[in-house]
Amino acid sequence: MDFFEVVKKRYSEKKGFVRVDIPLKNIEKIVDAGRIAPSALNFQTTEFIIVTERNLIDKISDVIEKEYLKDASALILLVSDFNKEYVSEDLKVKYYVHDAAAAMENILLAITAMGYAGCWIDARLRMKDNSDRISQLLGIPDDRKIFGLIPIGKPKEYGVQREKKPFEERVFYNKYGKRKTDII
Questions:
Q1: Is residue 176 in a domain?
Q2: Whose CA is closest to 157, among 20, 21, 19, 17?
Q3: Residue span of the structural domain in which 43 resides
Q4: Per-residue pLDDT tens for 22-45?
Q5: Fewer CB within 10 Å of terminal CB in the chain, N or C?
């Protein structure tokens, strides 16, 4: 699939999956796309957990309170050190958000390119003590936090990307508010 076709076909699967086994090598290939994503100053702050054990998928689904996770073939969790400051020149900057977001997008695009579907789950991790409960289930150290979770699988029915605002509404030239028609 052409790269731009993949970008346009990527959508967030929330209707559910058909329970099928995805070869581990395919899941690893998808996660590797996240591993090689750009990373601020190449600090590579994001780590990954692949969950394929059905009992763990069920338990995580119960914590997140989303039934559609139960039929996912696997879950991919992105884990970061939220507290560590990585020093860039004289600045102390927490790069985990940048690194994890780049890794997340690469993974979502790889999922689409390989004919599967997935969804970026974040807010449900922040609710109650969900992230802590999942961290305990998976043995994630106290100095690490779950940045995001992606269920992966074959969708019951392929979806489409939600409508985006028009290019002309979101893109400016040379200066904020300056439209293409202003430079021609």
A1: no
A2: 17
A3: 3-158
A4: 999 999 999 999 999 999 888 898
A5: C
